[in-house]
Structure formats: structure tokens, C-alpha cells
Amino acid sequence: MHVLRVQPNYMKSTILSFIVCMLIFTSCNHKAKPLTISSKDKVSIDLNSVGVNTAEMQKKMDELKKLTPLTTDQLKAMVPGELLGIKRSGLNANNMAGFSATEATYSDSSSDKRIDLSIFDCAGEAGAGVYSLSYLTKMNMESQTDNGYSKTIDFNGQKAVESYDKGIDRYELNYIASDRLLITIKVEKLGLDAIKQIANSLNLKTN
To answer: What's the predicted TM-score (pTM) here?
Structure first.
């Protein structure tokens, strides 16, 4: 039986993503001031920037819907056996419900160092939907708490989402590769430079 473990911050991230989705459609036809959602956590969303990219976002999703998802063997071939000297300790690949994805874990038994790598093919109807929810809706949105942050950055000439969880010293990077692959890299006890070094070392060519 496959068990899906949901991180505590996942539900919060999903709720914020849906909020942004709603704001995109309500701000397309008029100017809107940057919005700040205030509580103990601070979240800022630039509605003007989001609205400007709405047509481009829809065009990209339409392009993705026309593509055929990669096979699990193709995705697994992109996963290295070792990253930063840490050997791969686990690998899972799935092709179901209209999308393909693979996840790999790298852990060092002699330390707390850990790397998690996931590759999600955003091709097809299902994949395009995840592309919108998990990547595009996070653009132009920033959050900051006493325990970390999430922000949009420039990475290799395109936008990416960088996050940090101070409690477990974990950095996370989400970005698009080869115009269709949603890449998520998480590192624990390795630092921010390590996560970008990993990203630049991957071979993510789809043809």
C-alpha cells in the first residue's frame, strides 16, 4: 500500500495557492494594489504582476496539454545515483491519472544530511493543472514567518520559488526545466549553495 505523507506546511501552501488563483481572475480586468495578508505570518501578493501574465500563463498551459507525458523509465533516467557525494537511498516512479512523476531520496547514515529530488512532468491535462497550482500561482507571492520564508527568485534566467524552514534547516527550490518539468529539490543540513549546485548538475533534457 502506498502511503502519502503530507508535510505540515503543505495544507497551508495549498490554501494560499487557491487564494492566489481566485485573485488572478478577479484582478485581470483592473488595476489592483499589492495585497498583504496579515496574521502571525506575512504574505504579500503583487496582483498587478500576476494579472499581466494571465494570458501568457493560459497559453503555456494549452501548450502543455497537447504534450504526451514522459514514461517512468524516461524520468528515472534523469535521476542520478549520487548527489554531492551522497548516494541515492530510495527511488519511486509513478505514471497514473494522466501524469508521470518520480521521487528520489539521498541520505547519509553518518549525518543528518538529506536530499529529496522530485521530477514532475507537466505534460497533458493533469500535468498542466499541477503546473498552474504548484508553480505559476506561487509566482509574485512572498511569505515570511519567524521560522522561515518563501519567495520568488531569478534562477538561470527564469523565475523559481525558494523556501527555507529554519526549524529543520531545510532549503527548497521549485523551478521549471525543459519547458515542462516541475523540479523540486529539498536539502537538509547542506545550505543554500548546495541546492543550487544540485540543480545545475542535473541532466533534464526531454529529447
So the answer is: 0.74
